[in-house]
Amino acid sequence: MGQQPPWIQHPWLFLPIIAAVVITIAIGKKQEVGRFALSLDTLGLAVATVSSAQFALTHEAPVVAALVLAIVGAVSGGLLRDILCQLQPVLLHRETVGTSALAGAIFYIAMTSFAINEAITAVVSGLAVVVVREISIKFNWNLPKIISR
């Protein structure tokens, strides 16, 4: 996309990340991810999906590239968080993370193509992510798993 990541332009952005890693390692306590944490993760997923899709489209990326960037941008944040916290990544046991991001990205790209108000587009797209993810968590929906024999 021809853009430098913010952390290259502003290296001080690494300080909170380093602090979080040090605190997590120092505490060394592992616990199950609770329902409240999953809800916060879902909101973060929605924000990352919408902002990644918006970034791609404002930089004139093709629709498919915007869709891929939205999914990768949304999923990679949670993946990195889980790795730094020494947890099994949510992505590996709740496959609907990517599906939820896909739903939100499709809404965002479709609504943008119809020139719908940006704020409405962002809210509806974010809600699509939240609804798909929350329903999948509530009903324990997952994508089919490949079973090796």
Please provide a written account of the structure.
- With 149 residues, the chain is mainly α.
- 72% of the residues lie in helices and 0% in strands.
- It has one domain.
- It is built from seven helices and no strands.
- The longest helix is centred in the first third of the chain and has 24 residues, at 35-58.
- It is globular, with a radius of gyration of 17 Å.
Keywords:
about 150 residues, single chain, globular
In short:
The chain has 149 residues and is mainly alpha-helical. It has seven helices and no strands.
Structural class: mainly alpha
Mean pLDDT figure: 85
- How many E strands? 0
Q: What can be said about the biggest beta sheet? A: none
The string of secondary-structure elements, in order, is: HHHHHHH
The oligomeric state of the chains shown is single chain
Helix content class:
over 70%
Count of separate structural domains: 1
How many helical elements?
A: 7
Distance between the termini: 43 Å
Strand content: under 5%
Query: Poorly predicted ranges (pLDDT <50, ≥5 residues)?
Result: none
Radius of gyration: 17 Å
Shape: globular
Helix and strand topology:
Elements: H1 6-9, H2 14-27, H3 35-58, H4 63-84, H5 90-93, H6 96-113, H7 118-138
